[in-house]
Write a structure and sequence with these properties.
By secondary structure, this protein is mostly helical. The protein has 13 helices and no strands. The model has no long low-confidence stretch (mean pLDDT about 90).
Length: about 280
């Protein structure tokens, strides 16, 4: 005689009754996030522009966190921790770059329908993006000026200006590992934009030739992945802007496409690129 079939247990119903807001809301603050969209025109296309820009700001925040984590790990000679943070940021940069897709095919007429709502607002005024640029070695004290009216933001940017960039920490690590990084590079004024060094290029050439530390070569590749996606971000920004507004003056009085073209021509961590010609 066969055994009776086991009773099938119904899955427990999710807990639905909470004393206050849900634990999900307490953690994510979704109600705050989804009520930060205050459009200034009647055009339905403004909503996607505003939300996409806000999403970009959130990705900037995550990426700054990753690069600051990597910089701190490098100061402590914990290269694997730094590489892990850089690799996470590569995935996050991929997501950030994908944010251009909702905006990448705007026609001039579509953009003009709500462009006036921006007033003098422009992406170059983003404090969190500026912190990203500072971590990449793209320092400029003048970029603090737009934030004088926001004391907390200004203080955070000023702190970032005076701290070594991510690449400065990499070069200091190379020096501690016995590589001939020039003293002028190690002691440079970190509030200024990083300028390429032939001696640093020679160090990366040796590392990529397999004549030295594999761990440092892996670090170099993680940095190159970051640099490539930063370059793609700048180019995607350029193409989206060119498509939406041509060569007109940008919002906030910038040179628009001309300024973005100049930015897109620059590589961050420059010796990681030029060294490849000598391997």
């Amino acid at each position: 005689m066969s055994q009776p079939a086991q009773e099938i247990q119904e899955p427990e119903a999710p807990h639905l009754d909470f004393q206050g807001t849900t634990p999900y809301e307490d953690y994510v603050q979704a109600d705050v996030l989804t009520h930060l969209q205050h459009t200034r025109s009647d055009d339905p296309g403004e909503m996607v522009f505003l939300v996409t820009t806000q999403v970009m700001e959130l990705w900037f925040t995550v990426i700054v966190h990753e690069w600051e984590t990597a910089a701190r790990a490098l100061r402590e000679d914990r290269v694997p921790v730094a590489v892990d943070a850089l690799k996470r940021s590569v995935r996050e940069l991929d997501a950030l770059n994908a944010s251009w897709r909702p905006l990448g095919q705007l026609t001039p007429a579509q953009f003009n329908s709500y462009r006036s709502a921006l007033g003098e607002g422009s992406g170059f005024q983003s404090a969190m993006y500026r912190r990203m640029e500072f971590l990449l070695g793209e320092k400029s004290a003048s970029m603090l000026v737009p934030h004088r009216g926001a004391p907390r933001v200004h203080a955070e940017l000023e702190k970032a200006l005076h701290e070594p960039s991510l690449y400065d920490e990499v070069l200091r690590l190379l020096g501690r590992r016995g590589h001939a990084v020039p003293e002028a590079v190690l002691t440079r004024d970190v509030t200024l934009r990083y300028e390429p060094s032939e001696a640093v290029e020679e160090i990366w050439t040796a590392l990529y030739s397999g004549a030295a530390d594999d761990e440092l070569a892996r670090l170099g590749e993680a940095l190159t992945d970051v640099a490539e996606l930063v370059w793609r971000w700048r180019n995607d920004h350029l193409v989206a802007t060119r498509r939406a507004m041509g060569a007109k003056t940008g919002t906030g009085g910038s040179a628009g496409v001309a300024w973005l073209e100049k930015r897109a021509q620059k590589n961050v961590f420059p010796e990681l690129w030029t060294a490849r010609s000598h391997v």
